[in-house]
Amino acid sequence: MNVVFDFGAVLFAWQPAKLMAAYFPDQAATPAAAKQLAQSVFGHDDWHAFDRGGLSLDAVVVRTAQRLSLPAAPLHALIAGIGDGLQPIDATLSVLAALSQRRLQRGDLRLYYLSNMPVPYARTLERKHAFLQWFDGGIFSGDVLRCKPDLAIYEMLQARHALAPAQTVFIDDLQANVDAACALGWHGIHFVSAQQLQQSLANLLDQ
């Protein structure tokens, strides 16, 4: 079986509203305001272009600051610091570690990642986190100019590593991204918690 992980909010903690509250306390003074501001920044086409390698970090800062009337200096600090700020979720990392051990001991699975991740953050994660070497391969969106849920990025991973769809399971916190994988015949797990993920994987891998 091939097990494919998303990174943000699955393997690495991603809490954009908290970032907004920390860097823009006036504009994100309440949880609702922080959530709305986060959506305005990270849900916009400019951010998606940054995600897939079509905009530089400096360009997305300039565009976002102008569009939302935000001060550029703290916005640059926020966006530039995201890569270093992404921290592993310990419980999910434990699931991944167990899968890696099983892979070494039993040889009945392979591990991959498929992550919407701008190039600067991807390089930071590769530099900081040795456990990325547990994966047999993967794709960051910024490296291939495609983002989930575009089927093309799934097809790239599938072709690059000769993945059999019926023997591939994809894990993501966003249902739309899971649905795209399922459209190609992959199994899908909508991530809610590490405990739920562990049980769902057990049902698939040990049947």
Tags for this model:
11 helices; 207 residues; alpha/beta; 5 strands; Rossmann fold; 11% strand; 2 domains
Overview in brief:
α3 (45-51) runs antiparallel to α4 (57-68) and α5 packs across α7. This protein is 56% helix and 11% strand. It contains eleven helices and five strands.
Question: Can you walk through the features of this model?
Answer:
- This protein is of the alpha/beta class and 207 residues long.
- It folds into two domains: 130 residues, Rossmann fold (3-Layer(aba) Sandwich); 70 residues.
- Helices cover 56% and strands 11% of the residues.
- The chain is built from eleven helices and five strands; from the N terminus they run βααααααβαβααβαβα.
- It has a five-stranded parallel sheet with strand order 3-2-1-4-5, with helices on both faces.
- Helix 3 packs antiparallel against helix 4 and helix 4 crosses helix 5.
- The chain is elongated.
CATH topology name of the largest domain? Rossmann fold
For CATH, the homologous superfamily of the largest domain is named as HAD superfamily/HAD-like
Overall form: elongated
Find the structural class using helix and strand composition. Answer: alpha/beta
Can you list the strand order of the major beta sheet?
3-2-1-4-5
Low-confidence stretches: none
Beta-strand fraction estimate? 5-15%
Q: Distance between termini?
A: 11 Å
Helix percentage: 55-70%
Instruction: Give the count of helical stretches.
Output: 11
Q: On the 0-100 scale, what is the average pLDDT?
A: 97
Radius of gyration based on Cα positions: 18 Å
Major sheet size, sense and barrel closure: 5 strands, parallel
Number of structurally distinct domains: 2
Total strand segments: 5
| CATH architect. name of the largest domain | 3-Layer(aba) Sandwich
Secondary-structure element series: EHHHHHHEHEHHEHEH
Quickly name the level 1 CATH class of the largest domain. Alpha Beta
